[in-house]
């Protein structure tokens, strides 16, 4: 009777306390899940919320189970010191043996928790670039432009460059000949940007008007003018391709020269210093 009134009661209180703590943690995790998933029920956000709350729930359950179990064993009269020592040594051994796996999982957890990348994003990570096709606790899978599938352990990811996060810029470095009037080129670029934004096919992808930063570099054979347009994430390459196409046509119409590499043909020189004959063709006739 004495044991029931002391240790037995303590065990009952420990079990009840663990159950209450587990119930409270589940409710808190449900709130976290709703906060991450959002009101619109985006499939990717829901998947991320499921993964994060599932991991947190497992960790909380394991911690409560171990704590309550140890407390119950102590109340029964079992010496838990050897158990803690063995558990500590076992955890240390597992930590050394599976440190890469643990690093992958921890990095993957923070990638998900901080919403650094999502499925469908175009990113550079782990020395590779491509579209994220799956994101897990251990690996990130990316599909390159040529179709190559890169599988990168999360532990190898130290820097993430996300090119489709929130917004993007269609950035162009336009090279023109030194003889050209840069003010005229500025005006032409602004006109092309305005026309592009008014085009129904591209207007929905462009957020702001063309920005012209001015002359940025005096290169070997060209004056470099930098400009950009703010776009929706993932639309910058489409907008840039169309801008380049229109710019080339307009520059041709206005005789604005875009410098390009030239090649000088050298036929060689004989030992006596004479230049050999170089056969050429003019309008289809040999000369």
Largest sheet entry: 5 strands, antiparallel
Helicity range: 40-55%
Please give the domain count.
3
Number of separate helices? 7
Overview of this protein structure:
By secondary structure, the protein is an alpha+beta fold. It has seven helices and ten strands. The strands form three sheets. A five-stranded antiparallel β-sheet has the order 4-3-2-1-5. Strand 9 (281-282) and strand 10 (285-286) form a beta hairpin. The chain is elongated and about 115 Å long.
What does this entry show, briefly?
With 287 residues, this protein is of the alpha+beta class.
List keywords for this structure.
five-stranded antiparallel sheet, three-stranded antiparallel sheet, Helix Hairpins, SH3 type barrels, about 290 residues, 7 helices, elongated, Alpha-Beta Plaits, alpha+beta
Strand-helix topology:
Elements (H helix, E strand, L loop, with lengths): L1 H36 L5 H34 L4 H17 L1 H15 L8 E4 L2 E8 L3 E5 L5 E5 L6 E3 L5 E9 L5 H17 L1 H4 L7 E8 L4 E9 L4 H18 L27 E2 L2 E2 L1
Antiparallel strand pairs: 1-2, 1-5, 2-3, 3-4, 6-8, 7-8, 9-10
Helix pairs in contact: 1-2, 5-7
């Amino acid at each position: 009777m004495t044991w029931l009134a002391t240790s037995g009661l303590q065990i009952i209180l420990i079990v009840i306390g663990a159950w209450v703590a587990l119930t409270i943690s589940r409710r808190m995790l449900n709130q976290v899940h709703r906060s991450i998933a959002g009101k619109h029920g985006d499939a990717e956000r829901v998947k991320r919320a499921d993964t994060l709350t599932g991991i947190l729930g497992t960790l909380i359950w394991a911690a409560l189970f171990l704590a309550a179990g140890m407390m119950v064993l102590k109340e029964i009269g079992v010496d838990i010191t050897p158990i803690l020592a063995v558990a500590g040594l076992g955890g240390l051994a597992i930590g050394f043996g599976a440190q890469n796996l643990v690093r992958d999982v921890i990095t993957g957890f923070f990638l998900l928790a901080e919403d650094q990348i999502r499925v469908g994003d175009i990113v550079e990570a782990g020395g590779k670039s491509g579209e994220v096709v799956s994101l897990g606790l251990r690996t990130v899978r990316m599909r390159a432009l040529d179709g190559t599938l890169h599988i990168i352990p999360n532990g190898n990811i130290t820097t993430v460059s996300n090119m489709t996060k929130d917004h993007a810029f269609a950035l162009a470095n336009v090279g023109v000949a030194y003889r050209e009037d840069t003010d005229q080129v500025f005006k032409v670029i602004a006109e092309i940007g305005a026309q592009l934004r008014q085009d129904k096919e591209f207007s929905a992808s462009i957020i702001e008007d063309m920005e012209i930063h001015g002359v940025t570099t005096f290169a070997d054979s060209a004056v470099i003018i930098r400009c950009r347009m703010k776009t929706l994430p993932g639309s910058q390459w489409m907008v840039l391709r169309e801008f380049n196409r229109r710019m080339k046509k307009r520059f041709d119409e206005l005789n604005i020269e875009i410098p390009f590499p030239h090649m000088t043909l050298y036929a060689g020189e004989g030992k006596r210093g004479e230049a050999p004959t170089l056969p050429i063709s003019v309008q289809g006739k040999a000369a």
